[in-house]
């Protein structure tokens, strides 16, 4: 399991997240591999010997730009946001797409099974809740920690979502250096192997109206299953699948 290095400035929230997600604290700064750094800024994913950091940040950077300058139009169309659907994001990650959906006024449940990633996402959401500009958006996101394929049918038994959204990890060559570094860290942390068939089937069994899958524009279909229709942009497309259940 990925270790956590606690600095003297680590926040009480960071200590709480370490306990909540069963993370292991190390006594000294790791000399190799990935680790979580807890300091006054919250939690960050780092790699020994490198300066880069990866964290969930909804108050600045890309999230702030998309919130204030626009963006997300294609994903909005893909989930049919004008109908105000409930959305379950089965591949939560750092919550960027969940935040875009929540910024459209939608209620979003984000699912993440990796404890380190879930801790990073929870840390980012907590900081967003403390910021007046993002508090209302973050308040529309609920994080569920665990296996998506197991949690979807359990929670759907009490009420199915309109839309299940999936963004499975995939390699993509045309990325900025920063995004490439982030993906490299994540691949080392969580791997790339996913049971795509099980994930898609669970999503289609849970959704009432549609399953939306994010893919690179020229990428293969998830589990090699053709969608009912698509929304295609310059570098990304959204494949839409119909529910398995009425």
Structural class by secondary-structure content? alpha/beta
Order of helices and strands: EHEEEEHHEHEHHEHEHHEEE
In percent terms, what proportion of residues is strand?
A: 15-25%
Rg over CA atoms, rounded to whole Å, is 18 Å
**How many strands in all?**
12
Write down the overall geometry: globular
The number of helices is 9
Termini gap: 41 Å
Describe the main β-sheet briefly.
7 strands, mixed
Low-confidence regions: none
Nearest-integer average pLDDT: 89
- Physical arrangement of strands within the biggest beta sheet: 8-7-6-9-10-12-11
Helical fraction equals 25-40%
In short:
Helices cover 35% and strands 22% of the residues. With 246 residues, it is an alpha/beta fold.
Could you please describe the fold and organization of this structure?
The protein is of the alpha/beta class. The protein has helices spanning 12-20, 61-69, 73-78, 96-103, 115-129, 135-138, 148-156, 177-190, 196-206, and strands at residues 3-6, 24-26, 34-39, 42-47, 53-54, 87-89, 108-112, 141-145, 163-166, 210-216, 229-232, 236-241. Strand 3 (34-39) and strand 4 form a beta hairpin. Helix 1 (12-20) runs antiparallel to helix 5 and helix 7 runs parallel beside helix 9. It is globular.
